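Why does residue order matter? Because the sequence determines the fold. Keep that principle in mind as you read this record.
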Amino acid sequence: MKETRRGGKLQAFLAVLRYEFLWNLRKKKTIGLFLIVFTFVTLRLALFPLLDYFSGVTLRPDPSFVFDNVSVLQPTLLLFLLAIATTMNTISGEFESGTIIPLLTKPVSKGLVFTGKIVAAFLTLLGAYIFLAVYTTIGGLIIYGPQNNLELVPAGVLGLTAATMVWAAIVIALGTLSKNSMVAALGGFGIYLGTTIVGAILTIYLGATSILFYTPGDGPTATTATCGAVIEGNATSFITGTNGLGSVIMNWILNPALSVNFCGIRFRGNRPETFALSAESISTVALRDIGVGVVYIIALFVVSWLALRRTQITE
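Structure:
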């Protein structure tokens, strides 16, 4: 009897998952945003080589191109917009279309339906990023020659998907609480702008790096160069907020002993001066980044689930 019930729940979950996944693929805004992201990735891949070609400049091999570009979207606003396009109607759309009532009265477990929607959103984003990663890798090999550290690409893709799920959790929570997709989208956008603009001011000019370690977004930028010194050719920089989970994880796996610096800007008279805010190991940065992302995702999905359960009782 227990096995029959488990089999029935699994079939129901797979049915919900299949429906939600196909629905995500049919959304015009999801398709439109993916095409925009694909265009940006293509430009990043081919624009400078084309400019060099028409300028008569010899294209130089770049063995780090895939490593530097496969795990983060530039600008990171695209990451946020993909999260909105995929999840702004996940729960709130059911309220707006009126399908929430029959959905909540079906014999299928409401937790199963909620979980199916979340997993479908994750798989949609993961599928999109896998496609972009394969496209970037093949393009990088063709245009820039042999690439280093390709074995780390899967870790970067998973990190990028998790980074997007942080914003997806925010959007779903806002949509479930407000029962309005527009509130979910605009509210999420307001949070994104707030963390981006205010965060940049706090980090660069006030030296409050620690605040942005625990907020969603780009976070402070880490560098392997010395603050205020001439940037060396082999120095690298990358964002360390939740948006940069992919690149942080890849750098952590590549060099666990790496030490990174966080720099700020201050003015001496009328001249800007770069100075050191703090220094940390990449292991500390990565573990904190992963922990913050996981806490946001779990906490916000719990809030969404509780709000859905409350609706279940009051409707």
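Residues 39 and 45 are 10 Å apart (CA to CA).
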